[in-house]
Every structure is written in C-alpha cells, then in structure tokens.
Amino acid sequence: MNATVSKTEGPSNLFVRQVITRALLFAVGGALILTVAGQAGWARGLALGGLASAANFLVMSWLLPRALDPAQRRGQAFTVVSVVVRFGLMAVALAVALSMPQRVTPLAAAAGLFTVQFTLLSDRFLGGRLLGTTSESR
Amino acid sequence: MAFSTETWVQAASFLGAGFSVGFGAIGAALGEGYAAGNASRAIGKNPAMGGAILKNMLIGQAVAESAGIFALVIAMLLVFMDVQGAPMIEAWSLLASGLAMGLSAIGSGAGGGFPAAEACLGIADNPPTQNALTTNMLIGSAVCQTPAIFGMVVAFMLMFMDWSGQPLWPGWAAVMGAGLSVGLAAIGSGVGSGMPAGAATGGMARQPGAATTIRTNMLIGSAVSQTPAIFGMVVAFMLMFVDWNGTPAWPTWASLLGAGLATGLSAIGPGIGNGFTAQEASAGIARVPESSSTVTTTMLIGQTVAQSTVIYGFLVSLILMFIPREASETMVAWAAPLSAGICMGFGGIGPGVGEGLAAAYTVNRIARDYEGVGVLLTRVMLVGQAVSESTGIYALIVSLLLLFVI
Amino acid sequence: MAIEGADLVRAAALMGAGISMGLGAIGPGVGEGFAAGKACEAIGRNPKEAGLLTRTMLVGQAVSESTGIYSLVVALLLIFVV
C-alpha cells in the first residue's frame, strides 16, 4: 500500500492541462478586451498575473505527489518547500509588475494571480465540464 | 543613532512585508499540509480513486491558498512602496499593514485545509458523491477566505491612506492597534469557518441525499463564526478614522494599543469555539437530517452565548478609545490601560473556546435524539456555558478596575 | 524623563495584574467548557440521570475554577495591596 502511494503520479495530466488552458484563455481574453478598451497597462498586468497563476498551478501539480509521502514529517516538509517555491515564483511576477508600474499595472497583475481560482470556481458553477463527470474520474 | 525618517519607514515596510508573506505562507502550508496528509490516508483507503482524490486535493489547495496569495500581494506592495517624504507615522502604518494581512492569512489558510481534507476522505469512502463534495469544498473554502479579505481591506487602508493628519503620538498606537485588532481576530474566525466546512463535506459523503440541508447549516454556522472578525474590523476602522489630534499623547497611546489588543485577542476564542459548534452541528445533521431545525437552533444559541467574551472585549475597547484620559507622564498612566487591554484580550480566549466546546458536544447529542432531550440539554448547556464564562467575567472586572479605579 | 522608582514598581504591578488575570482565564475557560460539553453528552445518553450529572459537572467546574480564582486574587492583590 505504501509503495502504491509513493509511486502515485499526480492528478491526470489531462485535467491539469485543461485547467491551465482555460485559465490562460481567460487571462489572454481579458487582456485583449482591455487592450481594445485602451487599457494596455491593465492588459499586460492581467496577462502577467494569469501566466504566474497558471505556472503556480502547474508547479503545484508537479510537487504534489512528493507531498503525499506516507512519512508525515517528510510530507509536511515538502508542503512547505512547495509553498516557498511557488510563492517565490508569484513574487517574481509581482516584482516585475511593480518595478515598471507605467507599463504593467501592478493591481492588474495581482488580480491576474487569481485566474486559476476564478477558473475553478466559475467552471463549477457554470456547467462543470472541466472538473468532470464521474465517468471522467481519471 | 539617528537615522532619517525615510530609513525607518523603509525598514518598517520591509519588516511588514516579511510578516505578511511569512505568516501567509505559514497559513497556506498548514492548510495544504493537512489536506495532503488526509489525501494520503484517503488514497490508502481506496487506491482505485487515487486520480480523482489527487485532482480534488489540487483544486482544494488552490482555493485554500488564496489567503496566502493576498498576503503575498500585500507583501510585494509593501516592498515596492515609495517612501519618499513619508511621515514617521507611516512606518508604523506599514508595519501594521503587514501584520494585519499576515495574521489574518494564518486563520484562513489553515481553515481552508479542513474542507479539502474531508473532501478527499469522502471521495475515498463514497466515490459517486465526488462532484457534490468538490462543489461543497469550493464553497466552504471560499467562505473561509473571508476573514483574510477583512485583513486585506484594513491592510490596504493602512498602506494607502494619508496619515499626515494624525499626530505621531498617539497615532502610531492607533494604526498598530488597528492592524493587530483585525489580524488577530481573523485568526480565530478563519479556522472557525473552515471547521464546519470540513464537517459538512465529510457529512455529505456519508449522506448525499441531505446535501442541501447540510450546506445550509454549514453556511449559517460559518457566517456566525465570522462575527468576531467583524468586531475586529470595526475596532480597526474606529482606530483608523477617529482624529486623535486633540488627545494627550502620553497615556492615550497605551489606550489605543490596548483597545486593539482587547478586541483582537478576545475574538480568537469565540471564533474557534463557534467553529467547533458549527462543525458538530454539520456532522450531526449529516447523521440525522431530520434534526436539522432543532440542531441549527441550538447551534445558534450556543454560538451566540460563546461570543459574549468578544463583546466584553469590544466594550473594553470602546471604553479605552472614547473615554478621555488626562495627560500624565507617569508610568502608571500608561501601564493601566495597556494592562486592561491585555487582560480582557487574553481573558476572552479561554471561555470562548470552552463555551464553544460545550455547545459542540450538546448539538452532537441533540442530533442523535432531537425529539427527546433537546430542551433539557439546552438548559444544561446554558448552565455549563454560564459557569465557563466566569473567568471571562473576572477578566472583565480586572480590566474595568484597571480602567476606572486606578 | 526621570522614572521614579515607586512609579516603575506600580506600573509593573499593574501590568502583572493584567497578564495574570488574562492568561489565567484561558485554562479554566477551556476546561470548564469541555466539562460542560461532556456532561451534556452524558445526559443525552442517560436523561434520567440528569440531576446527578449536572451536579457532577458543577462540582468539576468549581474545582477547575480554582486556578482562575488564584489568578483573580493575585491580580487584585497587585492592583490594591502592592
């Protein structure tokens, strides 16, 4: 049983890819709309934040199986590593936005960081195709 | 050692950023670690559902992490803050901003782990319910992030409002009090909102037919658990918006700092206690859905009584803020109000948790036999809660003595 | 600012009073609540014994109260007698 857990792969790559694609679509779509509306800074910020959010989710899915280590201590240690690495990633994105506030609106980048959460919540409440019916449990 | 004002403000903004993201990361790691541990157990119980469980855990962790991301955003804003020409009081407001966001992210981050964990366990036990469980986990986790949003609102205000109109003394205490008030109060409420979400999700796995009833109770219980954080935010607003120019600098700073601590600390207990109560109520309704109205009523009674200590804390805060003190340079003048705030603050924690536990066991029992012993148990619960309250009342008495008799 | 010795001592006493009562209220608060909860659970299982169980709960709570009362006494001493 232990061997099964430590060899478990992450959740299906299909699901992760679907979420990321949807999230990037939202981010890019929103950015395009903002560009057309004349808010180029906001558009770039949203796109940057959305990219960081998707990257965060991707890294979380990679680091996930390690955090499930049946040895409690190592699993917890890995969760901490996961959080530190991912927050560092998002911090870089925010730092880029904040160091050139004229070209990339920081608040837009901050909003963009929540693209994946928005994708997950909106999917659940508008149809649920992404997060799967029971037949798509793998 | 004379540094320029700008140096101090810059240093404070970095320190605040450190607190914000540091505490935020702790909260996120706690919640995600708890979810991961339980996901391991779940996979152990039902390896065939491994993929679904991990997918669910990933979703749950992403939402539970939101509070941590708020904290990261505030931290980065603080790091890049332009401190040219900022008054000295800005140093304190930036530090307070970081504390407000960081502390409130601990509760929400940790609390978000509960629904994720229970959803994973539920999928292992009862695979066909997985969509309902994921939905409930999302709702519960999202509601749980609300106290962190309170903290973020106050953090933004502390960062961006113009503080040059406030005097440095006691202004610095006002902003620190504001940050601590909302930050500390949100810890209890964050955890206290996550616990019923967890129990409700676990209950839905066992009793999928009663999903709506369970979710209603979860939302009511969570909402009441968030009230202590609202008290914290109200005190924070009062501290930030009142003009402290007319008051004497020396003892007033202690009153304002004490005011923040009194409500902030005393809100932790009722937040967690209400969480216990709501948790057991959700679990009980999941076991016996017909009992939902009795259980919900008793839960509300129990939760309201458990909140009394945060009301005492609020009362002490109001007295500290609005009853003026004479200017005095003695140490006693500042020790008394600060001590009063600390006393009521810590004094509110124990009874809040204890009364919540009392109500929790009661609703658990009532769910099993809701037609029989409901009234008797409620009476005994109220008696028991009243006795638990006693040390909270002692703390209130000592606080009032320190405020009025010294 | 010259701090008087007596002033410092008095201020320390007041801080001590607040800390004493504040921290001292935590333990009994949680403990008595736990006792109340367990008593309710027991009464739910056995409603006929409600009287006995309630009395037992109150006795138990009174005993756990003792440390809270010690804290209160110390706090009052620090405020009024020191």
Protein described:
The complex is a heterotrimer of chains A (138), B (406) and C (82). Chain A has 138 residues and is mostly helical. Chain A has helices at 2-7, 13-36, 40-67, 72-99, 106-112, 115-125. Chain B has 406 residues and is mainly alpha-helical. In chain B, 84% of the residues lie in helices and 0% in strands. Chain B has 17 helices and no strands. With 82 residues, chain C is an all-alpha fold. Chain C has one domain (5-81): F1F0 ATP synthase subunit C (F1FO ATP Synthase). At the B-C interface, helix 14, helix 15, helix 16 and helix 17 of B face helix 1, helix 2 and helix 3 of C.
Question: Could you give the count of β-strands of chain A?
Answer: 0
Unreliable residue runs of chain A: 1-8, 133-138
Radius of gyration of chain A: 17 Å
Task: State the CATH topology of chain C.
Answer: F1FO ATP Synthase
Identify the CATH architecture of chain C: Up-down Bundle
Helical percentage of chain A: over 70%
Please estimate the helix content of chain C. Answer: over 70%
Briefly note the structural class of the backbone of chain A. Answer: mainly alpha
Oligomeric nature of the chains = heterotrimer
Helix vs. strand class of chain C: mainly alpha
Mean pLDDT of chain C: 91
Backbone CA Rg of chain C: 19 Å
Total of domains of chain A: 1
Characterize this entry briefly.
The complex is a heterotrimer of chains A (138), B (406) and C (82). By secondary structure, chain A is an all-alpha fold.
Q: What are the defining features of this structure?
A:
heterotrimer, A: 138 residues, mainly alpha, 6 helices, disordered N terminus, C: 82 residues, F1FO ATP Synthase, 3 helices, 88% helix, rod-shaped
Record the SSE blueprint.
The complex is a heterotrimer of chains A (138), B (406) and C (82).
Chain A lengths: L1 H6 L5 H24 L3 H28 L4 H28 L6 H7 L2 H11 L13
Chain B lengths: L4 H41 L4 H15 L1 H14 L9 H37 L4 H15 L1 H15 L7 H39 L4 H15 L1 H15 L7 H18 L1 H20 L4 H15 L1 H15 L8 H17 L1 H20 L5 H15 L1 H15 L2
Chain C lengths: L4 H20 L1 H20 L4 H32 L1
